[in-house]
Design brief:
- The structure is a single chain.
- The protein is mainly α.
- The chain folds into two domains: 1-47, no CATH class; 51-194, Orthogonal Bundle (Tetracycline Repressor, domain 2), CATH 1.10.357.10.
- It contains ten helices and no strands.
- It has helices at residues 3-14, 18-21, 25-34, 41-45, 50-70, 79-93, 98-108, 114-131, 140-161, 168-197.
- It is globular and about 50 Å long.
- It starts with a helix and ends in a 25-residue tail after the last helix.
- 24% of the residues are buried.
């Protein structure tokens, strides 16, 4: 059996136990048993323990998101709409496991898991931007991912608390947040244009004579 497939099977089965046992070895062992695997497969599949299992779950969900997006005509959408579609797709895939996601956020909030949380979030937002067709390699590469990480994080929290029908309030919240983010490049361009039209503070000032008139420039030596 392929190791990657085994990991997927254990994680998928463990999700039903996470709401009760948290992201623990116990939940993973229960998942392995539900998947028809011997107990030792838990350690074989995730020798790094729960942290490795959590990273695999994030990567597994990213794969499912990208596979679902391949069947959509994203090229017909604007960039902001493509990103919204990707975020919504990922959350909808996790809809049956909202309590497991809630327990996951609690697990990632522990101080010693800060690095894990950053890695998982970065991979997700990077996958979303690439699915949206982003090919930036300059400073904007990091700016875009940083902005989307903030939007994605707050949207997940809103989604977990959303009791509206079909999570309609979450999708409206996501659209508002993305509209703010997509406006940032335009604001930066306008600011750069305005700053470029201002006189440089380092430029030499011409002296003024009496009465406010500009003093004549000193003759250049010949």
């Amino acid at each position: 059996m392929d190791l990657g497939e085994t990991r997927d099977r254990i994680i998928v089965a463990a999700l039903a136990h996470v709401p009760f046992d948290g992201w623990t070895r116990r939940a993973l062992a229960a998942g392995a048993a539900d998947a028809g695997l011997a107990p030792e497969w838990t350690r074989r599949a995730f020798p790094g323990g729960v942290i490795e299992a959590v990273e695999h779950f994030a990567e597994y969900t990213d794969r499912r998101m990208l596979a679902a997006l391949e069947g959509r005509d994203l090229g017909a959408l604007r960039v902001g709409e493509r990103i919204a579609a990707a975020v919504r797709t990922r959350l909808e895939l996790n809809a049956p496991h909202r309590e497991a996601i809630r327990r996951l956020l609690s697990y990632l909030a522990l101080p010693h898991n800060a690095g894990l949380a950053m890695r998982a979030t970065y991979r997700t937002v990077d996958a979303i931007w690439r699915a949206a067709g982003d090919e930036a390699t300059d400073f904007n590469f990091y700016t875009k991912r940083g902005l989307l990480a903030a939007v994605y994080g707050t949207t997940v929290l809103y989604w977990l608390a959303d009791g509206s029908e079909d999570q309609a309030d979450t999708w409206a919240f996501l659209e508002r947040r993305l509209a703010d983010v997509m406006a940032v490049p335009r604001l930066q361009a306008r600011l750069k244009e305005k700053l470029g039209s201002l006189p440089s503070p380092l430029a030499p000032r011409r002296r003024r004579g009496r009465g406010g008139r500009r003093a004549p420039s000193a003759p250049r030596p010949t």
